[in-house]
Amino acid sequence: MTPWLLFGAGSGVGACLLQRALACNQSVILVLRDSEQARQCREQGVTVVEGDACEPEVVAQACQAAGPDAVVVSTLGGGSVNYLGHRTLIDGAEQAGLKRMLLVTSLGCGEGWPLLSARAKAAFGLAVREKSLAECWLQSSSLDYAIVRPGGLLDVVATHNGQLTQGPATLGLISRQDVAFALEKLLLQPVFGNQIYNLIDPELEMPAVR
After folding, report:
1. Domain NAD(P)-binding, which positions (predicted)?
2. CA-CA distance, 134 to 104, in Å (whole number)?
3. Which parts of the chain sit beneath pLDDT 50?
4. What is the per-residue pLDDT for 79?
């Protein structure tokens, strides 16, 4: 079983993927900043490296704990993590001899930028641009990669209708749980083949505001 070195398990999609790992007895190594979260995960038998994923020393420690056969998985986002943090992570993985990485960014990255409305670009365009830079850094690395660009993320139960596609993207929504299911399937592949995927649930709509 190939270990997962998971960055971003403290919340969101990363937390959902951690639950999938625990449910399937998947070997997983986490990097967490929160000491209480780290304690709870250790009680479940998970190897945890405490610290900031933007710090080279923390990344190096995590890579050593995971071993060279592990696949790096990052669902990190926010602030300086989007580009500079991922640059540190990618560089550290290469230096430690790891070979594969799965990176979660968002729709609108790369060639998907024109899909975003002017309002969306004003609201979170900077984050999308930085995530696009992270994608480029990974693409120009030595790592065998898969990049997943999910649509708008919702905290709703899984529909199991998420669709991974390649080529031109369309805007849409996706449950965080369904993103985790899609990532789990990709992680079963022995080789990623340097591919980029879009991920939405074409039948999912924004819940009505009451």
Report:
1. 8-189
2. 10
3. none
4. 83
Helix/strand/coil for 2? coil
CA distance linking residue 186 with residue 182, whole number of Å: 6
pLDDT of residue 1: 83
- What pLDDT was estimated at residue 209? 53
Kindly state the helix (H) or strand (E) to which residue 29 belongs, with its residue range.
Answer: strand 28-32
pLDDT tens for 35-94 read 999 999 999 999 999 999 889 999 999 999 999 999 999 999 988 899 999 999 999 999
Q: Are 94 and 56 in contact (CB under 8 A)?
A: no
Single-letter amino acid code for the residue at 130:
E
d(CA 189, CA 94): 20
Instruction: Confirm if 175 and 201 have CB atoms less than 8 A apart.
Output: yes
* CA 63 to chain CA mean position, Å: 16
Give 170's contacts (C-beta < 8 A, 6+ positions apart).
Answer: 115, 198, 200
Spatial distance between the Cα atoms of 36 and 94, rounded to a whole number of angstroms? 30
Q: Residue 68 carries which DSSP code?
A: T
- Is residue 36 packed enough to be buried (19+ CB in 10 Å), middle (13-18) or exposed (0-12)? exposed
Q: Which residue do the tokens 């967490």 mark?
A: 32
> How are strands ordered across the β-sheet holding 71-74?
47-50, 28-32, 4-7, 71-74, 100-104, 144-150, 195-200, 163-165
